[in-house]
Write a structure and sequence with these properties.
Strand content: 15-25%
Organism: Marinobacter nauticus (strain ATCC 700491 / DSM 11845 / VT8) (Marinobacter aquaeolei)
Function: Aminopeptidase N is involved in the degradation of intracellular peptides generated by protein breakdown during normal growth as well as in response to nutrient starvation.
InterPro entries: Aminopeptidase_N-like_N, Aminopeptidase_N-like_N_sf, PepN_Ig-like_sf, Peptidase_M1, Peptidase_M1_dom, Peptidase_M1_pepN, Peptidase_M1_pepN_C, Peptidase_M1_pepN_C_sf
Bound molecules: O-methyl-L-tyrosine, zinc ion
Distance between the termini: 24 Å
Radius of gyration: 28 Å
Cofactor: Zn(2+)
EC number: 3.4.11.2
Shape: globular
Number of domains: 4
Helix content: 40-55%
CATH topology of the largest domain: Immunoglobulin-like
């Protein structure tokens, strides 16, 4: 499947399928040296397709064809063509049955697409185009069929045999083998097919739906993980209830299963009735998972479950519509997480990810619209733009329509399109039809790539009491798209008086009581808004709650930011003011002489924060995090990584020195508060104490060192143990660092997920993760090139989180990454292509970096037989 000039696929060339499949009957014979797949397809010509005599075209990838038969008669040479990547039958009747037998080798499948083996069990991953690695099939999401699947395998090695739907038959076979047959009553695209066979323990629970149906809930995991299922099971039940309460969605099958596998390219997969999870995204216990991991698991369990409606019952017509299911489902899971924890904190986390990573993607060579117009390899389009920006687009619709109309819209969408494969436009139309709102211009959010820039200027006229806001929007050019049209942007804002009180927002000419916050709807390149009746110059609080995924430019003074940081009633903007201030202070030190001082008011502001007993502790914990290096790089014109790193370290050191006593008090205030709990308050306390510890160790505080060692030894949970370990690893206490790392590994060496944490703490640290140490980690016995989590925890963490080391001015970090990408490209192209990402933004960096990043990309480009995945990323980056 290697190719030098992969084809580009265009949305504009979409055609309905020439043939539809009503029924798929599969029989899997699983063996140690391979698997035989018997497939019977019930096919008919698509009445909506104009082509009456079209050949039957079935996709295939890495298949050995054993036989083909049409309506029971074997086809002879000449009656079909096996092209390797397709099986073509030139002449078929209007309705027929096609029987195909293929042989595949799951045990040698390192790409982890299709049927493969992970820790001794068989499992599948079919999205986006993995089903064609199992058998020949029209592998496109608008072909929806009913599946019946019989699995046969050795009973002692594979006692558990699972597929989609309900189990309908099982029995014994000769030679110690057995079988189970599954039937899925809901028509589905092949990408939602799943199969699992293994020696797994079963965890059972039940859920009673709103209409009183009892659903069997099952988790299947390796025996060693039996104790790590409770949290995910509970999250599943909460998700099921939430989807009923908030969206009126009831589960449809009688059984819902979750399987954990160690080797998985992504986080998890929403296969109908049989979700398959990367172990790291589902298994958790207090001793082995951090708070962040618990929250991630809760969100991913919910995400996959929510797909049952937004993705499975209503699916995508083609892969250009990927955000139809992903954007909507991420929006749904973020609403769920907000409801389960702290909404402000969740909003901060989502906005941080968007501004740090999605804005960067949108400004880079792989920028694409939420609904792309073309691609070479669809696996490269499971991006932050499709997922996170797509979710922001749905959020804006939600905010424009309001809760009630949005619910009417989603009800209409599910009802109108149940059982169909549809487009993002169908989604928007349902929202329009239900609410009566015109979302015509809004649709540009799906079509235009690039992050809109909203520039705000203001003037205040004391004599008339009028405050004028001029708001301009522009959308930068992106590859293949120039001269963009203004978009429909909901822009939430408030105005504050000098005493910190919100001021009424009375637009000129308006009567009635003026609101204290409003959402301006921008639709033109420039607007001028006049607010009247203001007796003082207000401080504007702009884009409250991050009401649109845009960059806001406004010439804030440091006084204004300090003011907003302590007074803005919008929690998100309070946090944001602190971030903007810190960014401004750090930026002013980038490249400045060593003697340049740090803004002392920043210390005062953080001191007030630390002493603010009224402030929501979860918000405080977020406000104490300095903007990341990645975000500072994203904001820079021509990033000088070393200078940014130094400036940030300097500010961190200055703050920690200046606030030493307050940090120590914060630490002590937040330790030892009883049993481990996962409430927002308890999570905030752990975050506060670990941040304080990290800052104090950063400045080499001896008392903090003792506390860190004690916490490391005595912690009853992974958040605190890892918090202490991370603080030690990132400190200059080299000996303590080594000892702690050794002790940690010894304690957890038999738990792959914790070993991954151990790898990533080192790989992301500029103290423990310089290149020679990274190479040692790759030689560590626990490292495994075939396991994507291990690759991510070392190579991925190094390139994405250890920026000073990765961007070593000598170019060694880039060379290293190029080497690993080339090595992985042969075994797992999806993972290889994802690892290239840090190099793709080479134009963004100062010349010394940029040139070397480019040559690393060229080195990858020149590798013989590049996969389509890596080819697309590298060639687009160099174009
Ligand atoms: N649909 C899944 C994500 C996913 C996509 C591709 C995969 O393999 C290439 C695996 C999972 C989700 O959104 O969770
Ligand atoms: Zn998804």
């Amino acid at each position: 499947m290697r190719t030098n000039q992969p084809q580009t696929i265009y949305l504009s060339e979409y055609k309905v399928p020439a043939y539809l499949v009503d029924q798929v009957d599969l029989r899997f014979e699983l063996f140690e040296d391979g698997a035989r797949v018997h497939s019977t397809l019930t096919v008919r010509r698509n009445p909506d397709s104009g082509e009456s005599a079209a050949p039957l075209f079935l996709h295939g990838d890495s298949l050995q064809l054993e036989s083909v038969a049409l309506n029971g008669s074997p086809l002879r040479t000449g009656e079909f063509e096996d092209r390797g990547d397709a099986l073509v039958v030139p002449s078929v009747p209007e309705k027929f049955e096609l029987q195909v037998v293929t042989w595949i080798e799951p045990q040698n499948n390192t790409r982890l697409e299709g049927l493969y083996k992970s820790s001794g069990m068989f499992c599948t991953q079919c999205e986006a185009e993995g089903f064609r690695c199992i058998t020949f099939y029209p592998d496109r999401p608008d072909v929806m069929a009913r599946f019946r699947t019989r699995i046969e395998a050795d009973k002692s090695a594979y006692p558990v045999l699972l597929s989609n739907g309900n189990p309908v038959d099982n029995g014994e076979l000769e030679n110690g083998r057995h079988f189970v047959t599954w039937e899925d009553p809901f028509p589905k695209p092949a990408y939602l097919f799943a199969l699992v066979a293994g020696d797994l323990v079963e965890k059972k629970d039940t859920f009673t739906t709103c209409s009183g149906r009892n659903i069997d809930l099952r988790m299947y995991v390796e025996p060693r993980n039996a104790k790590k299922c409770d949290f995910a099971m509970d999250a599943l039940k909460r998700s099921m209830r939430w989807d009923e309460d908030v969206y009126g969605r009831e589960y449809d099958l009688d059984i819902f299963m979750i399987v954990a596998v160690d080797d998985f390219n992504m986080g998890a997969m929403e296969n109908k009735g049989l979700n398959i999870f990367n172990s790291s995204c589902v298994l958790a216990s207090q001793e082995t998972a951090t708070d962040a991991a618990f929250q991630r698991i809760e969100a991913i369990v919910a995400h996959e479950y929510f797909h049952n409606w937004s993705g499975n019952r209503v699916t995508c017509r083609d892969w250009f519509q990927l955000s139809l299911k992903e954007g909507f489902t991420v929006f749904r899971d973020s609403q769920f997480s907000a409801d389960m924890g702290s909404p402000t904190v969740k909003r901060i986390e989502d906005a941080t990810l968007l501004r740090t990573a999605q804005f960067a993607e949108d400004a880079g060579p792989m920028a694409h619209p939420v609904r792309p117009a073309s691609y070479m390899e669809i696996s490269n389009f499971y991006t932050l733009t499709i997922y996170e920006k797509g979710a922001e687009v749905v959020r804006m619709i939600h905010n424009l329509l309001g809760d009630e109309m949005f619910r009417k819209g989603s009800d209409l969408y599910f009802q109108r399109h149940d059982g169909q494969a549809v487009t993002t436009d169908d989604f928007v139309r349902a929202m329009e039809d239900a609410s009566g709102r015109d979302l015509g211009q809004f649709r540009l959010w799906y079509e235009q790539a690039g992050t809109p820039v909203v520039s705000v200027s203001d003037e205040y006229d004391e004599s008339s009491g009028i405050y004028r806001l001029t708001v301009r929007q522009s959308i930068p050019d992106t590859p293949g798209q120039t001269g963009k049209k203004p978009q429909h942007i909901p822009f939430a804002l408030g105005l504050l008086g000098a005493d910190g009180q919100p001021l009424p927002l009375k637009l000129s000419g308006e009567s009635g009581e003026a609101p204290l916050e409003r959402v301006l709807e921008l639709s033109q390149a420039e607007h001028c808004f006049e607010f009247e009746g203001l007796s003082e110059r207000p401080v504007p609080s702009l884009l409250r709650d991050f009401s649109a995924p845009v960059r806001v430019h406004y010439p804030w003074t440091r006084e204004q930011l300090l003011f907003l940081m302590s007074h803005d009633p919008d929690g998100f903007n309070r946090w944001d003011a602190g971030q903007r201030l810190a960014v401004d202070v750090i930026q002013s030190l980038v490249g400045a002489p060593e003697s340049a001082g740090v803004e002392p008011r920043l210390v005062d502001a953080y001191r007030s924060l630390l002493q603010d007993s009224e402030l929501d502790q979860a918000l405080m914990a977020k406000m104490l995090q300095l903007p990341s290096e990645a975000y500072l790089i994203e904001l820079a014109e021509q990033a000088d990584v070393a200078a940014i790193h130094q400036a940030r370290e300097k500010v961190l050191g200055y703050l920690a020195e200046g606030l030493r006593d307050e940090l120590m008090a914060c630490y002590r205030r937040n330790v030892g508060q009883g049993d481990y709990q996962l409430t927002p308050e308890a999570i905030a306390r752990r975050s506060l104490r670990n941040t304080a510890l990290g800052w104090l160790l950063h400045i080499g505080d001896q008392e903090a060192l003792a506390l860190a060692k004690e916490q490391f030894r005595g912690a009853d949970n992974m958040t605190d143990r890892l918090g202490a370990l991370r603080a030690l690893v990132n400190s200059d206490f080299a000996e303590d660092r080594t000892q702690a790392l050794e002790a940690f590994y010894k304690r957890f060496s038999d738990d792959p997920q914790v070993v991954e944490l151990w790898f990533s703490v080192q790989a992301s640290s500029d103290r423990a993760g310089q290149l020679p140490q990274i190479r040692q980690l790759l030689d560590h016995p626990a490292f495994d090139w075939k396991n994507p989590n291990k690759v991510r925890s070392v190579v991925g963490a190094f390139a994405a989180q250890n920026l000073a080391a990765f961007h070593n001015p000598d170019g060694s970090g880039y060379e290293f990454l190029a080497e690993q990408v080339c090595r992985l490209d042969d075994s797992n192209p999806q993972i290889a292509a994802r690892l290239v990402a840090p190099l793709t933004r080479w134009r963004k960096f100062a010349p010394g970096y940029s040139k070397q990043m480019k040559s690393a990309l060229e080195r990858i480009r020149d590798k013989a037989e590049l996969s389509r995945d890596v080819y697309e990323v590298v060639h687009k980056s160099l174009a």
